[in-house]
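Quick one from the shared queue. A colleague (R.T.) flagged Metallophosphoesterase as missing a structural entry in our internal table.

Convert sequence to structure tokens.
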Amino acid sequence: MITLLNQETNYNNTTYTKIENICSRNYLSIYLFLLLIIPDIYIYKSYITKSTGGNPFGWLWFIPSVILLFALVWILLSSRDALAIQHLIGTFTITYMTIVLPKTIFMICSLLDLPLKYLFKWQIQPFSWLGIILGTGMMLMVLYGAIWGKTRFDVKQVTFASPNLPAAFDGYRIAQISDIHTGSWNGDRTALQKAVDLINAQQTDLIVFTGDIVNTKASELEPFENILAQLKAPDGVFSILGNHDYGPYHNWPTTEARDQNIRDVQNKQASMGWQLLNNDHVILKRATDSIALIGVENNGEPPFSQYSDLPKAMEGTEQCSFKLLLSHNPTHWRREVLDTDIDLMLSGHTHAMQFAFGRHSPSRFMYPEWSGLYMEGKQGLYVNVGLGYIGLMPLRFGAWPEITVITLKQLKMEN
């Protein structure tokens, strides 16, 4: 049974999260405002006034930024609960990134031409042309990620070999999905149906979901319950809760309402045929062999919630030579899991910040392990970058929505 959020420590975590959210929102607003006006003023002074000869129509250059500024102020004043208007904020985010980021890139590159112009008297402006190319590329990436990238489902094949895997499980296949965030899909049942069909088409032995099925409210699941219920595997569909599933980012009228929402999230998963592992485990059997599938509640560093009880979840798994853990936040691996005999941990949470170039992503500055398979000795961690996206930033580029198929192999040890 899930730990209810009416304990004193949970109140403190929630308060800390709200304070962090308010501070982050204020700082972000300042950054957005500065990025909005500084490149515009620079480009207007350096280029627009020269090309228009001081014509009053040159002021039309500022119209897109003025509209964005009014939209930013309206968003800040209209609601304290950003998720309540997330689709409007998402539209603003894409529009902002499409217009402002190319200007910012161009401004930075253009500034690099100034020494060439004034010290070496160059007439050409190579860095400005580079800024045009890079800015245009950024604009195209944002538009691609917002229109097509967020539903460009990527099936990744991964092999994990372990000497502890029983012979009967050699070749055992697991489909992992994570971070669906149904509230961000804006009722797009067609895209999610495509993802479910892809997952089922892999014909794996087991399907696992590693948290964040909603943004905040259980009601977000309602348009998609019958689709997600179609996920089937011989050994079942198992899930855990992520930080969003506890509802910390919504202004609940009472703690009772918040606790009821968490129960609703659990009940809806049960009605879909998913088995939720809240600090619990199941034993999967093949012939006379068995492995342990363990699931814990969210284990995150502040301000993310921490409700996991790994020792409790592992009680009764001692007879299993191979242990598989589901834990939403990958930082749990180094903070606790590596000190146990768990062979493989599956997680999500990072999204790779929904933007990557190969093995390079902004998320690497926040998470030591943010995407793919990591090894420490014989122990492994796999981080899935998520199937969905945060509605406040409805795009993916490079970090395509992921379906992972993990094949377990028995590693033969040489004598």
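Residues 107 and 340 are 51 Å apart (CA to CA).
The chain has a mean pLDDT of 91.
Added to the table.
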